[in-house]
Amino acid sequence: MTHTFVLSDDTVLCRQMPDGWWPLQVQLSPDSNDLNEQAYQVGHVTLHESLAPSHWLPNDNGNTDNTPDGLVHTDTEAFNTFTAQATSAMTYDHAVTHNVTLPVITESGSNAFVPYRQLMTHLPVALSDQISQAIQLLSWQADTQFCSRCASPTVHANQGERAMVCPVCRLRQYPRVQPCVITAITRPNPMTGEMQILLAHHHRHGQPTMSPMYGLIAGFVEVGESLEHAVVREVAEEVHISVSDIRYVSSQPWPFPSNLMLGFHASYASGDIIIQEDELAHADFFDLSNLPKIPPKGSIAHELIAQVMREQGMPL
Ligand SMILES: [Zn+2]
Fold first, then answer.
1. In a structure prediction context, what are the per-residue pLDDT tens digits for the chain, which is 316 residues long?
2. Residues measured by CB to lie within 5 Å of ligand 1, the ion
3. What is residue 255's DSSP assignment?
4. Residue 155 C-alpha to ligand 1 middle, in angstroms?
5. What is the rounded distance in angstroms from the CA atom of residue 316 to the CA atom of residue 305?
6. Which one of 39, 127, 267, 309 is most buried, by most CB atoms within 10 A?
7. Distance separating alpha carbons of residues 132 and 102, to the nearest angstrom
8. What Å distances lie between residue 16 and 20, 24, 66, 112, CA to CA?
9. Is the CB of residue 251 less than 8 Å from the CB of residue 279?
10. Positive or negative: CA dihedral 92, 93, 98, 104
11. How many CA atoms lie within 13 Å of 66's alpha carbon, on the beta-carbon side?
12. How far is the CA of 152 from the centre of ligand 1 (A)?
């Protein structure tokens, strides 16, 4: 018996549990098992196994959780050992066309399509990585039905290879990942010596409110650029300072549309903050003991800030 996630664009079919919405792993009946054996069908993709993450630490302190696998375990276990069991993902339309038995979905029921952005704040990392993978592969499939060079209809490469091949000009189109760098910049407070972190309020986070959200400096890696160069360039462009001691911390797939966020830590080197007004409303160094509202748990920005706090012996 195999299981599949069911998605519709950036939303995932979920069940409401005591601690929030969880992605449903819908059983494929024996009749629909041939879905897994056929090499390729638009709207249905096989997934890599989700790996239990050792690179992100749990932020909570051992509260118990009921998870969809029916087991009760602590947050620590959930974050460090959780692996998703679904071997594939399909679109809702594909599920309906192929008579996959779906749970009842009603507006007032306990099953619903929930935006992935809303889910990621509480899912274990391995599960959110797998949902992220599903969203990206399904949209890649939908976007590569035709050759981007000669516009002929494409066919799927041999079983086991994720590529769309043009039968006319032989162009191969693979799923693409767009690397983005995101950086936690720290320095000691010049007056008190307390460690500070640079945070910025982006226009994309909306108008400043009573408690505006502050995030880290981030941006796309450009063609021909190293990751370290991208960090230096983005920081200079957005806040006009220079940094040193750049080191890689961890990464996160981010399927909007198909990014890989690469998280770095850097030390402030020199310069006064001058913000790039097109992108930022405000940026400053904040004492770790007095942070503004920051991005939610489940985001790499949160994890990078939490890691700086842990290094200073201050749990977030
Ligand atoms: Zn072609």
1. 688 999 999 999 999 988 889 999 998 876 655 555 555 788 998 888 766 666 565 544 333 343 444 333 345 555 556 666 788 999 999 999 988 989 888 777 899 999 998 888 788 888 888 899 999 999 999 999 999 999 999 998 876 788 999 999 999 999 999 999 999 999 999 999 999 999 999 987 777 677 889 999 999 999 999 999 999 999 999 999 999 999 999 999 888 889 999 999 999 999 999 999 999 999 999 999 999 999 988 889 999 999 999 999 988 7
2. 147, 149-150, 152, 166, 168-169, 171
3. T
4. 11
5. 8
6. 127
7. 21
8. 6, 10, 11, 8
9. no
10. positive
11. 8
12. 5
CB 199 within 8 A of CB 212: no
167: left (phi over 0), alpha (psi -120 to 50) or beta: alpha
Tokens of 268: 């402030």
**Which residue in the block uniquely carries the two structure tokens 């630490």?**
57
If one counts every other C-beta atom within 10 angstroms of the C-beta of residue 42, the result is 14
Tell me, rounded to whole angstroms, the distance of Cα 98 from its chain centroid: 29
pLDDT score of 106: 77
- Which residues share a beta bridge with 64? 74
The structure tokens listed for 309 are 């706090």
Q: Which two tokens stand for residue 96?
A: 């309906």
Ligand 1 center–CA 149 separation, angstroms:
5
Q: Tell me how far the alpha carbon of residue 172 lies from the centroid of ligand 1, in angstroms.
A: 8
Give distance in angstroms: CA of 260 to centre of ligand 1: 28
**pTM of the predicted protein model:** 0.81
Exposure on the CB side of residue 242, measured as CA atoms within 13 A? 4
Are 24 and 5 in contact, with CB atoms under 8 Å apart?
A: yes
Q: Taking the CA of residue 81 as centre, how many other CA atoms within 13 Å lie in the half-sphere pointing to its CB?
A: 10
Positive/negative CA dihedral, 57, 60, 63, 65 = negative
